[in-house]
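Onboarding guide, step 5: your first structure request.
Type a short instruction followed by the sequence, for example:

Predict the 3D structure of this protein.
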Amino acid sequence: MASLAAVCAALLTLASCLGSNDEVNYVYYDDTAITEFSLGSLNVYVHTKSSTGSDSVYVTTVSGSNYDFYIDQSKNEIYNVDSLPYGTDAAHVLATISSKNSGLIYIKSLKSDSLSYYSSTDSIDFSQPRTIEVVSQSAAYYRKYTVKVNVHQQKEDDFAWSRMAVQQDFAGMSGIKAVAKGDSLFVFGTDGNTTTAFVTARADGQHFAKLPVSFTAGAYANAIAGHGKLYMLDGGVLKSSADGATWTTVTTNAALTHLVGYGTKEMYALSETGRIMSSADGGATWKADELDDNTSLLPTANLNFALLPLKTNDEMERVLLTGTRTGSANALVWSKIVDYSATATAYPWTFVDAAEDNRYSLQALSNLQVMCYGNQLVAFGTDNGTLPASMSVSPDQGITWRTDSVYALPAQAQSGIRVLSATADADNFVWVVCTGTGEVWRGRLSQLGWKKENDSFLK
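The system replies with structure tokens like these:
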């Protein structure tokens, strides 16, 4: 171990001795910096269950070179944007560190201000931020860096739920609809006579304020959000609001029966003639969309809307309408490609046909909820007033569905749910609001909540 002063003295002494040879001229640089940082092979401890159900742990390895470290020379910080896997042993790590002009690299002790010379063959404890110092060849200058090795503190496939405060206002409702907009979560519910509205900050979720508005009994089911506004079909009148408290009339002549959802540029609804309608001007005017199958296959209850961006074209998206209809054992799924390019092609709504005996079709569940989550479709409902253990997932735009234990639902949810509504917000939280019990749950798949560090600067 050596102090920085001792290191500098040693470098000066070395320079003096070398300088006694008149036939050799040495140049010692004043400037230096850390120029490269990478990790070697890393041990990862994986917790699992044996075939008998008991807990067990096994060790696997990952290559640290697969995780880029960014060197912020302005802030003297070194860190990895993509965190290492959950369970990585960051206390015993081999690191490869390079410096400009062969500056000498030292690592500060975790217990004192003493420094030790860096060696690529010595294990380093990066379980907490470490200070690295690099000294120029001339010993006239040095720089300190803070190195942070980020390791995920959650498993990437953990779906964690939080139980918010029970809302007695929701418990007695006969119908309910949750809508996320901006930083707020709105809940519209009916007692069978009147629809009332409530709002909470998404960061809160515990305290819901009742808004000074009311609507017709069935209006709650026709609340959607899009383009920074709330929209509601209230007794045949289409209304909009920026805050849920003040509403203005958009149109009274739309002849609509149900608002469906809002895509990137178009709003969708069902008409009195049983067609899917679209509006490109915020609901002021509507046109009938083309369907590739019979309108008798359109859902009439438990209507859900989902938007799936297309990975192959950022000027196109897929929108989906799902729901149930009396007499059908399976959910009814309709899909449409929407083209917003300069040479746009008009595509019809396509019925996603699923045979009654298809084991991978989505069943017509009670309180069916379908949404886009993590760039795929997820769905769930209730079974005799209780939530199932997990959601069903469709990786192919609603064609096939399989239960996925990763997408777990809150196991502690009470029985006695009459009606529920679910929605996902901009922070990838799923909200579940229940009548009967008055419960409100908020949950998120851990990997969808991981923060991405800044990497906009050069290495």
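Each response can be followed by summary notes, for example: The chain is about 5% helix and 45% strand.
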